[in-house]
## 1
Amino acid sequence: MAKFAVIVFPGSNCDHDAYHAAKHVMGADAEFVWHKETALGDVDAVIVPGGFSYGDYLRTGAIARFSPIMQEVVKFANRGGLVMGICNGFQILLEAGLLPGAMLANERLKFSCKQIYLKTEQIDTPFTNALKQDQAIQIPIAHGEGNYTAPQETIKEIENNGQVLFRYCDALGNVSPEANPNGSVNNIAGICNKERNVLGMMPHPERACEMHLGSEDGRLIFQSVLNSLEHA
Amino acid sequence: MFKARVHVTLKPSILDPKGKASLGALQNLGYDTIKNVRIGKMIELDIDASTEAEALQAAEMAARKLLANEVMEDFEVQILEGVS
């Protein structure tokens, strides 16, 4: 059975949601890994969950990125292992250099907590293979610093490589400035690395896996990971 | 012991939402001669080093490794007089 590691930092607060989604909703195996650990153990995929690791001191994700376990996560990713960073987890992966770019405060400076829609841009990745091209999925966001930025050359490169997996859109899948909740360049909500085994996304798929939470669309992302582990 | 000040600022090409909001507030207060606000941070380090050059090197390494994110920020290090 596929096994997810869910990394736990001081200040993580979506770790239990991610564990619940992986284990109780998707029926996979999951275990928590404390940030002071120096080994991941025998796992097939790693989730770096949301929260406010180290109180967001200095910059979001800046301190967590030097936790002992992160060295192992970087090695795991460099060996081709699947790593998903959600919200604060995305910020940590940016700081760790596993993904390109950086996060600024939301354009309107408000912490934004609401249901939004994402347009699926690429389906040839381990994180999106269960989705349809251009499919609009409903997933909530909850962040104050999700305003994705990067040097122009980097944006050009990730766009040309098809590394942008999700963009903020409306319910019909239209990508527009009005549908952009935080000011991210090109409405970018989720990206992967060039090798396509590391995902970072600000929205929370683990909070959208059961209808009583408003949407089940998040399951498609977990299902994609399970599909690709099965075929690996 | 040396005291170092590390000034971390957003790169000029990066929009500064916090600066923009502060500019709006200043203009609401009537400070209409102020045309732009950019917000950064100042970090003070006490460094155990025998020379100023050594202290500077330690501060620069700290800035590169952790204190600044060079994707979006620039930094400048200033070494103040030795403190005991």
Note: The CA atoms of residues 20 and 37 of chain B lie 6 Å apart.
## 2
Amino acid sequence: MMKMLVPLAAVIVLIIVSLAGVEAAGLEAVFGIVIPYLAFIIFVAGMIWRVIDWGKSPVPFRIPTTCGQQQSLPWIKQDKLENPSTCTQTFARMILEVFFFRSLFRNLKTELHDGKVVYGSDKWLWLFAIVFHYSFLVVFIRHIRFFVGDVPDVIHILEALDSFFQVGVPLVYITGLTLTAGVLFLFLRRIVIPQVRYISLPADYFPLFLIFAIAITGILMRYFTKVDVVAVKNLTMGLVTLNPQIPQGIGSIFYVHLFLVCTLFIYFPFSKLVHMGGVFLSPTRNLANNSRMERHVNPWNYPVKVHSYEEYEHEFKDKMKKAGIPVEKE
Amino acid sequence: MYDSGKIIIGIGIFLLFVAFPFYYTAIGKPVVKPDPRIDTPAIQAMEKKQCVESKNAMKTLHMQMLNDWRDAVVRDGQRFYVATDGKTYNMSLQNTCMHCHSNKKKFCDECHNYMAVKPYCWDCHIEPKEGA
């Protein structure tokens, strides 16, 4: 229970801090300018640091997790996606992993039926992971309208599709709902399935609560409590043009939303969320299984002093002959 | 660093994505803050320059009000709106709203373009003809 309550309390504290900071202390400039810039710098620098750190780790041998027939004799059919042996095949495998979460698609459920272990397909995690990630991506891209002066047509098309059903005014964005639903499912999964609950840590709950709070504050702002959205864009454009300013009368909930997003950005490179970059650098995914075709030499091999049998025999030939031990070379 | 070529390309793509707003705004047209005008003849002629509701309410809630008006008129046949100050208005975009705000380009479009919002009012209503 504590594993869940601590991150929940943390998110509530974040909300209270930003509310109090803006409402009581009048720190709009801190929450609207200083923290967003800090968050952006920490996020970008943190991500680069992580990736370079990964790049420095040697991966001398091919360790892809394979689950298909590897390349063998010409008459044995290779499973090129599950066990790639060339760069192109690995690339295709990575595309499927990054865009379609192929390894989650293989998620299994293990159950005991009459004393026998039974494995069954379990696609729910894959489905909601797809829904969650793609919704978040669309929500993220949609926000570009606050950060550029002349909004590209692509964003307009995306918005039109996202509000396709034209429900209410402002039009309801489908991804706003699906993102919230996705986060809720990923949270419920952690508390309903006993095995998953057992291995869940505060670091698993915190991002879920944080993203949930971000989604809810965003939805509240757009549809219910309302903020002065033109003033919001004045603020964000001030940030983008490096000419920051704090417009009057935006409404505190905007600063709560912004502070939570900043927290997410700062937290990102130092937590499990960094799998955004990590998926590209997973040696178990991005390596071709060509160990039988190419020799991979460990770069930090210690130069071992070898004394081969040939040399040994050469050295002790006379003694060996005297003792009647057979030798290979006369 | 191993595979530094690929890693640097990856970081480059990442930077290209996250820095998009900065360079896109820097090379694009200068950003002009919206300045909706209320200097139409109809508004100038008013003694008390007051919209249907308060300015703040109109600013944040006009879209919801228009939506409610549409539902009331089109679905319920209810044509009159009693404002908070007791005045009664004919619920009509073209006859009430656009009577005063006859300058769509300098009023509606100012903020809508700035916020990249495309309301679908003019899918059904006839857009007012204005000189550029």
Note: The mean pLDDT of chain A is 93.
